[in-house]
Amino acid sequence: MNKGIILGCLQQNPGWQGALGALNPNWVNLKRSGGAHKIATFMRKEGWDIEVLDYWLAFEEHEFKQFARSRITQDTKFIGVSVTFGYKLDLLQRAQDHLKWLKEEYPDVTIIAGSKMLVDIMVLPCDYYVCGYGEYGLIKLLKGEATITKFQGLNCVMADRHHPCFPSKDLRVEYEDRDFIQPTDTLTLELSRGCKFKCKFCSYNAIGMKGDLTRDMDTLYDEMLSNYERFGVTSYHVADETTNDNQEKIRFAGSEIQKLPFKPNLTGFIRADILSTREDDKKYLAEMGFWAQYYGVETFNQTAGRTVGKGIDPDKLKRGLLDTKDYMNKHCGRYRATTSLILGLPYETSESLYDGLNWYREHMPNENLVMQPLYINRQINELMFASSEFGRTWRQSGHFHPEEIKEEITAEDYAEFSEHPMLQGYIKNLHSEQHNLHWSHDSYTWKSAILELARTMQQGLYDPRINRIMTWDLFNFITPGTYDYDSVLELSIMGYDVKKLTEDTNTYIKNYKEAKLNA
Ligand code: SF4
């Protein structure tokens, strides 16, 4: 039987929103690789023997070699590298070293990296690079049937364009005993693939889609039951771009999940504007155990919201958030909101920004907030980078001044934050990132949005010392066993036991490595 190995690893420190500059940038995150396990499930159905190695960048050189030597045989045709957000610093070096060694030792084994964008994988020494949802792209590549696009000498398979795998009915993921899944793991679940909306800042490929995007929902119950009975797993990240894009989907999921012999904990993206206008969404989400909800609110200013394709009446939105909070606390016993705002949308004003922030701090004090300036990628090479509608059309849109401006951060700007050297460093780094367009409109510029963001931090409206842990981040504190769901909801981003979490995470990874190396 043909064999393959897929390597997965996410580089990200728990509580990554906090403690500017004080985190371990080489932290190996305990998130299982959703992409690696999905591709593995698909390939097994195609008749392949596929093993996944999670946390491969936590393996020291001798451990990685030991693993590879114990697994690679003449039947091994490929080694895949599943990348979520790219690698940097020491982990990038380790990834490059491991892959170079693999190629030298096993020149006949094809090394294939996969990620959403080429920019995240092109620094890895591989034979091929698959971009986008990769199931069909990979199998076609291995059969010699894929469309290969050359970019800067690299062999790329632009899967979303030439071998698209969205939407898809078959989104079930199956794990194997040799994955050593633990009861505290948070696994990835897909209920649908692709997004029917088209927000103007969004750089995701599968947006604006029509028709039914849902999976075969009849397999949902079995998938979750099997993971519970075999491994004791009760927690999931739902990978859907918008879990409540389709009420029938969440209604059905709620009714299936209620039949399970356990109460799950689900996390994912929710459109708060839909939640606030469609009465039963929160009921079905509660039935699903979907109490950790990430909202792309973007702004509390209706005109600014309309500019990006949203634009609900802010009073209605606020009422919807408060109702949902009460409902989830009552029916799930827990709630965590992450509200994500974009600072600097056209028509946002300082007044509407601070009104929204003050409301959030007053009425959602135990929740999480994520803020970022309006990023517009000036690179619109679609082969390499994902680009947004704003990125393609900002100049003609009428919402921005038509020319880029060059504004330096001055000594006077820095002086405003003289008591916060970390903030000064943050401003400097953000402002100097090469790929960001220096846009401007009547109320903000790229520079003034960054300074405003720093101001909200300085004023305590966006302060990691009080900001609670983000929905997607909760598992980092649960999986190693350091906290349970009740205690983690009390923590602020910077208020956790770093020493204990580090020790527990290291122990988790050590146990995983031992299990894999002795299997
Ligand atoms: S931001 Fe979310 S809802 Fe909007 S188009 Fe992108 S994926 Fe869809």
Describe the structure.
This protein has 519 residues and is an alpha/beta fold. The protein folds into 2 domains: 3-165 and 507-518, 3-Layer(aba) Sandwich (Rossmann fold); 177-458, pyruvate-formate lyase- activating enzyme (Alpha-Beta Horseshoe), CATH 3.80.30. 38% of the residues lie in helices and 15% in strands. It is built from 19 helices and 15 strands. It has helices at residues 34-45, 61-71, 89-105, 135-142, 159-162, 220-231, 247-257, 272-277, 281-288, 302-308, 314-331, 350-363, 389-397, 411-415, 421-432, 446-458, 475-478, 485-488, 498-518; strands spanning 3-8, 10-11, 28-29, 49-54, 76-82, 110-115, 128-131, 149-151, 154-158, 186-189, 235-238, 265-270, 292-298, 336-343, 368-373. Strand 14 (336-343), helix 12 and strand 15 form a beta-alpha-beta unit. The model has no long low-confidence stretch (mean pLDDT 95). Iron/sulfur cluster is lined by residues 195, 197-199, 202, 204, 207, 241-242, 296.
